[in-house]
Amino acid sequence: MTRVMPAGAPLLETFAGTDHKRIGLGVGAIAFGFFLAGGVLAMLMRTELAEPGLQVVSLNTYNALFTMHGSTMIYLFVTPVALALGLYLVPLQVGASNLAGARFALAGMWLLVLGGITMWSGFLVQGGAAQVTWVGFDPLSNAVNSPGKAVDSWIWGVVLASLGELLMAACLLATLLGRRIAGMTLLRMPIFCWAQLVTCLMVLFAFPVLIGAMVALWVDRQWGGVFTGPGGPVTYQHLFWFYGHPVVYVMFFPFLGAVAEVIAVFSGRRVFGYRGMVLSLLVFASLSMSVWAHHMFTIQGVTTKYFALTSTLLVLPAGTEYLALLGTLHGGRIRLTVPMLFALAFLLQFLVGGLSGIWVASPALDNQANNSYVVVAHFHYTLLAGSVFGFFAGVYYWWPRVTGRLLGERLGRLHLLLFVLGTNLTFAPQFALGEDGMARRIADYPKHAGWETLNSLSTLGSYLIGLSVLVFVLNALVSRKWAGDDPWGGHTLEWLAPGAAPPPIRSHTPLLDEVPA
Amino acid sequence: MKVLLFWAGLLALWTAVQLVFGPHLITVLLLGGAAVAVALTAFVARLARPARREPPDLSPSTPLIALGVAALLSGSELGPWCLGLGALMTAAGLAGLLGER
Q1: pLDDT digits (tens, 9 = 90+) for B53-65
Q2: Measuring CA to CA, how many Å separate A409 from each of A177, A342, A398, A432, B35?
Q3: Chain B residue closest to A152 (CA)?
C-alpha cells in the first residue's frame, strides 16, 4: 500500500525516494499542510473583520496575515497540489514506469518545502512577516517602504517554491511527451493528462518570469536601480502578472481534468467532445498567457482594449469545456457518489467565479470593482469554490487508488454540505460588501458603514469551511473500508494495475503493453 | 512535438493581434518571447535523445543539493556562514549525484 511514511521503511526512502508516487504524495502532503496553515490565517482575518474595530490583531499583523494567506495558498498549496496530482497519476495514466527526470521532481519537492519554510520564517524576524501582498507590489515592497528581512525571506521563499514547481512541471511535460507507452497516442491520453500538459506549458513559460522578477526585486531592495525609474512599478506589475494570470489557470486546469474524469466515470460515458475539449484546453491556455494586464486596467498606459478582448475571448474555450462536461452528463447513468457530487458542485461554484470574471474583464466595470471586495469574492469563487471543489472531487475519486481504502460516504456528504454552505456564506456576502464600497485589504471599517451583518455572515462561513476541512481530515483518519481493485469502474489505466488496488511504491512496471481499443 | 509548435503558434497569433492595438514594447516582448521560447523548446525536444536509464530508487544527493541551494539563497540574508554551508552542501550533493548509479 502506498503511504507517505511507510511503516518500517527507512526514513531515507521517504525523503530521497525517486518513485513518482512517493514524490506525488509527498508534494500533496506538504501542500495540504500549507493549506491548513493558510486556512488558519484566513480565519484569523475573518475573525478580525466580523465586527468594526480592532479586536484580534493589529493593523500590521493584519497586513502580514493577508500577505501570507495569499502567498501560502497560491505558491504553496493550490499550485503544488495541482502538480502533485499529476506527479502521482500521469505516469500511471500513460503507462510509464516513472517520471522522466524523477530526480528533478524530487528536487522540486524539496525546494517547495524549503521555500515554504523560508517564506514563513518571516514571522520570526523583527516586525513580523512580509506585508506586501502576495503580489509584492513595488514600491510598497522596496527597501524604503518595507525595510528589514521579512520581505527578503518572502522573495526567496517565492523563488524556491516556484523553482521547485518549475522542475516538477518540466518532469511531467517530458513524461507526457516522451514516456507514453506504445499505442498511447496524444489523442488517446485521458483528459486529465491533457489538462496536466497545458498546465505544465504555462508553468514552464510563465514561472521563469516570476523568478526573474523576484530576483530583480531583491536586487532593487539591495542596491536600487531596477524598478526605481518612472515606469519601474508598472514594469514590475507586467512581469509579475505575466506569471500571475497564467497561474490562475495552473490552479484550475488539473482540477478541471479531474472533474472531467469523475463526471465521465460516474455518468458511465466517455468524455463528450473529447477532441473539442483538447483543442479548447490548448486555446484556453494560450489565451490565459495573453490576458495578464487585465489586472492593471486601472493603471495608465495599459493597452486595455487588447487585454479586454483576450479576457472576454476566454469565455469561448471555457464555454466549450462546460458544454463537453454537460454533454457527458446528458443521457448518462449518473451515480451520485461523493466524488461526483463534488464534481457537480465544482461546475456550479466555478460558474459564479467565471461569470463574475466576465464582468471584471470589462475595463469600465473593472474600474468600479477594482480594489473592492467584489474582486475578493470573484477570485475566491474561482480558486476556492472552483479549484478546491475539483481537488476534493479528485481526492475522493483517487483515494482508493492511493490507499486501497474508500473514504466514508456519510462523512464525505457532510464534508460537501458544510463546504458548500461555508463557501457561499463566506463569499456571496462579499459581492454585496464590494458593491457597497468596502475596500479589500483593510483590517477595520467604520461602524456607520453598515457592513457588520454581512461581515459577520462571511466570518461564520469561514468557520464552516474550517469545520468542513476537519470533517475531511476525520474521514481520512477513520475510514477503513477496503476498496477492492476498481471500486468505481474507472476508464483509465491507473485502475488496471494487476492484483490489489495500489501498485507497490517501488518496482512499478508499465501497466499495459497495448492500450485497449 | 507538434503540440508544442501548435501552442507556440497560438501564442504568436495573440502576439500578432496585440500589434493592432499599438501595444507597449514590454507586452510584445513578454508574449512574443514566450512564443519563441516554446518553439525553441519544441526544436530542442525533437533533437534530444530520450534518456532511457532509470534513476536510482534513492537519491540522497538530490535533497542535499536542494538544501544547498536554499542555504545559498538564505545566505544572502543570514551571512557568510550560511553561504559557505550552502556552497558545501551543493558541492557535496553534486559530487554524490555523479556517484549515483
Answers
A1: 778 889 999 999 9
A2: 37, 12, 14, 35, 46
A3: B77
